[in-house]
Amino acid sequence: MEFNTSLSQLPDPSDKRIALRVTLPAERALKKGHPWIYDQSITDISHAGAPGDLAVIFDEKRRFLGIGLYDPVSPIRVRILQARQPAAINVDWFREKLEGASKMRAWLDGTGTTGYRLVHGENDGMPGLVLDRYANTLVLKLYSPAWIPHLKEFCAALAQVSQAEHLILRLNRSTERQTGLLHGLSDGMVLTLQTPPNPILFKENGLIFEADPINGQKTGFFLDQRENRLRVQKLTKGKSVLNVFAYTGGFSVYAARGGAKEVVSVDVSQHALEAAVRNMEHNKLTNIRHETIAEDAFDVLARMKSQKRLFDMVIIDPPMFAQSEKQIIAALAAYHKLTRLGLGVLKKSGTLVQASCSSRVDAETFFDSVNKTAKDMGRRLTEIERTGHPFDHPVGFNEGAYLKCLFALAS
């Protein structure tokens, strides 16, 4: 992997460490492995720092507790890289972390899968950073400008660990807005010399999908639903399937391979649905009746209910509804409405597959909401399975859990 000049223009991290002390609750959380230090938990700081400065946390007896990336513009003031034992944060440190994460996922290649998450942020010891693989292209997504001064060393380590040819940079919205801290970097920038193909084709459980990491949602595909898609495939033989919030048709393709007699993909984006059609073509599944509807999902479900159009399986995989504590009530209302609408077009004894990716809404609350809504409608749900994160999206702390999915028969 050879990099272009964009990395050489980035600043080096400061040699001067920031010394911090934190509240006792924050100390206890850090000792239990929590990866964040919030701004309100800091009781003493040696000096003001810049994004990416390394901050060392000590207890009241000056004993080392952890070292992490300092971010003065975020409520998460320090993202912990190393706890308990001191360590030099350098190329060797990054290489060791990347090697560990890569080895954990190496077995996925044997499943006919070349698209998966290589680094899952905090849960792989690199908070605020995600690294996804799409065949020979890697996509690096940053959730904090604190990573910018460390990118040269991170990429040098990555080149030693990965055989990939291309690296694309993605930035979350809050990081993208902080242009003064990006030193010329931008969302969708290619960091390597060679231009990656567009679209990128990769495999998942033997199926071929395309991804657009530069312009697509997340890093180009919803890799975290891989195992749930495979579960859907096993339940669709001879069934009519409605896939709501279909994006580029991940669930639709699996349903078709499972033997569905009809698949309807609904998404507000016509561009995404065109990719869904191509994904069917990539896998030679064009003999399956596949209808695409580029409209608002709520409107489509309401119209289908009025038309009494029913399906054997309804899949509802919406975007994140709650990005903050204030949005939880509205998110639960949206899930409630989707459950009502989804059950309104689901046949008796049909299968409901409903997911949530909102970390602010915990699993029990989400599952209870779906079951209560069904009960209020006079529908009885017999749960088949409750699922969470796939292997390549591990969860190491409570706030890291976001994905939950319910499979249930609705009588």
Could you give a short description of this structure?
This protein has helices spanning 24-31, 91-105, 151-161, 173-176, 226-233, 250-257, 270-282, 297-306, 328-344, 363-376, and strands at residues 18-22, 36-38, 42-45, 54-58, 64-70, 76-83, 115-120, 129-134, 137-142, 166-171, 200-204, 207-211, 240-244, 262-266, 289-293, 311-316, 346-356, 381-387, 404-410.
The major sheet is characterized as:
7 strands, mixed
The structural class is alpha/beta
Query: What is the 3D shape?
Result: globular
Tell me, what is the CATH class of the largest domain?
Answer: Alpha Beta
Helix tally equals 10
The mean pLDDT is 96
- What is the chain-wise order of helices and strands? EHEEEEEHEEEHEHEEHEHEHEHEHEHEE
CATH T-level topology of the largest domain: Rossmann fold
CATH superfamily of the largest domain: Vaccinia Virus protein VP39
Spans of at least 5 consecutive residues with low confidence: none
**Which strand order spans the largest sheet, edge to edge or round the barrel?**
15-14-13-16-17-19-18
How would you sum up this structure, described in words?
By secondary structure, the protein is an alpha/beta fold. A seven-stranded mixed beta sheet has the order 15-14-13-16-17-19-18, with helices on both faces. It is 26% helix and 27% strand. The protein is globular, with a radius of gyration of 23 Å. The termini are far apart. The protein has helices at 24-31, 91-105, 151-161, 173-176, 226-233, 250-257, 270-282, 297-306, 328-344, 363-376, and strands at residues 18-22, 36-38, 42-45, 54-58, 64-70, 76-83, 115-120, 129-134, 137-142, 166-171, 200-204, 207-211, 240-244, 262-266, 289-293, 311-316, 346-356, 381-387, 404-410. Helix 7 links the parallel strand 14 and strand 15 (289-293). Helix 2 (91-105) crosses helix 3, helix 5 packs parallel to helix 6 (250-257) and helix 8 (297-306) packs parallel to helix 9.
